[in-house]
Each structure stands twice: as C-alpha cells, then as structure tokens.
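The protein record reproduced below.
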Amino acid sequence: MNRLWTVPIALLLTATITEPAFAFVDIAPRTRQLLVFLHVFGAVLFLGNVIVTAMWMTIAKRTRDANTIDFACKAVIRADWMFTLPGVILILIPGLLILEPFGGLGGASWVDMSLALFLVSGIIWGAVLVPLQKRMVELTREARELHIALSDRFYVIHRRWTMWGGIATLLPLIALYLMVVKPRLWG
C-alpha cells in the first residue's frame, strides 16, 4: 500500500477503537478560522480540479486526435500534482485539526463517514485511476509517434477511467454534503 495513505488510515482505525483523536487540540479562534479557510480552500482545489480535468478529457477524447488527447492525458497528471494533491493535504491536515468542537475523530458520525468516503476515493485514485492514466499516456504517445489512430484499447481504458473517476468524484461530493449538513448517521 502506498505510504501516503497509512497515516489517515491509521488515524481512522485508531478513532474507531480508542478515545476520540485530535479532541485535545486547543486552537485560538483566529487560527481556527484560518484552518477552516484552508480546509474549504482545499476542497475547492480538489473538487474543482477533479471535475475540470474530467471535462478536459471528455472534450479531448471527442477530437479523436492523438496529439490533443496525449496533451490532455499529460495535463491531467500534472494537474493532479499541482491541484489535487495539495487539495488533499489542505483537506486532511486542517480538517483533522479543527475537529475538537465535534469530539475529534470518532466524535461525530458525519465526520467519520466523510473521512471514510474521502479515503475510499483516494484508494480508487491511487490503485485504479493513476495506473489507467499512465496507460492512456503510453497509448496516446505511441499513436502520436507512429502517426496512427488511437487503438480501441485506449477507448476501453478511457471508459474505465471515466467510470472509476466518476465514483472517485462522487464520494468526496457526498463527503462535502455531509460536512455542510452535519447529519447524525449513527450513535
């Protein structure tokens, strides 16, 4: 498993079997406001990039031009590094630090469910989407260099990327809803 996910997964597991985590963090009001801003800004970066890059790929794919699609595939990967990953960091770190009023991890069902949905989305991204993106880049590069049309294999992989990307986007959108509405789901 990628080491990036070990800390959030460990925190989530710890929260389910021990006292609420991060409930000990005492934050000054101005600092809390800054952390809330960073948390929301992270969500905007993350969701905005995920949604926009899906649109880029859809538009590029419709051209059926290997050069255009190759550029879009590479741009999606760059955008993940420039926007999605910083968004994830800004969602998680400030988010975990501002949990004290809600009892920390394990203190509110909507927090736990949101974090679980976010983690599942991340696992899909790392285990499924990134390998598919890399394969699409290989196939578009090959078509571009050989001056041939994209293979049917590319379009099969793109359909999988679109399906799994839709799921990986829907989960954090549900988490966003839970964060705003704060429903009691259990307990």
